[in-house]
Amino acid sequence: MTEEKEVATETNGQENDKENNAEEETNLESAVIRQVEYYFSDVNLPRDKFLREQVTLDDGWVPLDVLTKFNRLAKLSTDIEVIANALAKSTSGLLEISDDNKKVRRNPELPIPEMNEERRKEMMARTVYAKGFPKDSTLDDLLKFFKDYDGVENIIMRRYQDRQTKKRHFKGSVFLTFKTKEQADKFMENKGMKHNDTELIVLWQDNYLQMKQEEHAAKKEHRNKKNKEKEEKKEEKEFKLPTGTVLHFKQENEKMTRENINEALVALGAEIAFISYKIGEKEGWVRLTKEDAAKEIAEKIPDGKLTIEDTEVVFKLLEGDEEKAYLDKTIEEMSKRRRNQKNFKQNKGKNYKGKQNRKRKQDDHGDAPPSKVKADS
């Protein structure tokens, strides 16, 4: 009895193995058909340079031993006979097998579509973005998941490159292209679609790309704003000016020059950084180089008045908010000039209209202050 049971068990095991082998062969054939049809599909063939070259060599025929060099087919089988027998069972009408079972070609009655802008838009209209898959998923896992949905023509696993290892990893999202727009519409009608317990995010590819474009634009704008603020703070720090250094003056001589003002103040011991004034103007500003230097000079001017070129010039020390407003505006102008110079260098003078050859204006200096800052009388 014991021996009979053991034999019976072995016999049942052999029968189960045969059933499993038959199932595996069926699955293998389906996988082979799916893979080779993908190679010759509307999605792949127009953009597969190598395969496009092969189909021009022998009236469209491609040797099966060439296809077995392709990685995914090679993983399924490299046996030409197995591949040929599988392809003979294809019912799509896309492929033809040669009489000697050693070559395959795309049905000549199905011309290869031209990959142009119109074609690209047509394909995008039936392509869907789906996210929420485990990042260790394989293409086979995804094929298995989507096999219950009609018309999935192509699955593109979206990947990113690790900066350190340089390896490419699955993002957990895919682009699905369907054979027809109607099949894509039907797929999009599925609400609350899940993979295992994770609900998938599903969008039309066009909507997804537009959303990402807007996100990138917003991030770029935010980044540029931050960089600009950082640069401005850096420049303000670089251009920090000492206080107690600004004198405002008024006079009525239309021929008074900046040099006249400069000579008169230098005679009092002033070290001048900049004089904001043009001939013909009735007021101007003098900025000195050292902290509180203007206070010292102001104390040397009796009643705040000096006679220069037979004209009474009235000086006033800027303090508090008046001085702060003047210095802030000066720093802003200096920073602006610095940025313009940087932009010019970056653009390599492309939009520069020869201004460098023009005669400098009297107040055109690298640290020039604002042209007008109102001072209280």
From TrEMBL:
Per the database record, which ranges form the RRM domain? 126-216
Superkingdom of the source species: Eukaryota
The record's Gene Ontology cellular component field reads: cytoplasmic stress granule; cytosol; nucleus; ribonucleoprotein complex
Biased composition annotated in UniProt, kind: Basic and acidic residues: 228-237, 361-377
Q: What would you give as a GO molecular function for this chain, any one?
A: mRNA binding
Keyword line: Nucleus, RNA-binding
Taking every annotated instance into account, which residue ranges of this chain make up the domain XRRM?
Answer: 240-359
- Alphabetical GO biological process terms: positive regulation of translation; tRNA processing
Using the UniProt annotation, give all residue ranges assigned to the region (Disordered): 1-28, 215-237, 332-377
Instruction: State the compartments where it is located.
Output: Nucleus
Can you give the residue ranges of the HTH La-type RNA-binding domain? 22-114
Instruction: List the InterPro entries hit by this protein, alphabetically.
Output: La_dom_prot (IPR045180), La_HTH (IPR006630), La_xRRM (IPR014886), Lupus_La (IPR002344), Nucleotide-bd_a/b_plait_sf (IPR012677), RBD_domain_sf (IPR035979), RRM_dom (IPR000504), WH-like_DNA-bd_sf (IPR036388)
Q: Where is the composition biased (Basic residues)?
A: 336-360
List the PROSITE patterns. Answer: HTH_LA, RRM, XRRM
Q: Could you tell me what this protein is called?
A: La protein-like
Species for this entry? Papilio xuthus (Asian swallowtail butterfly)
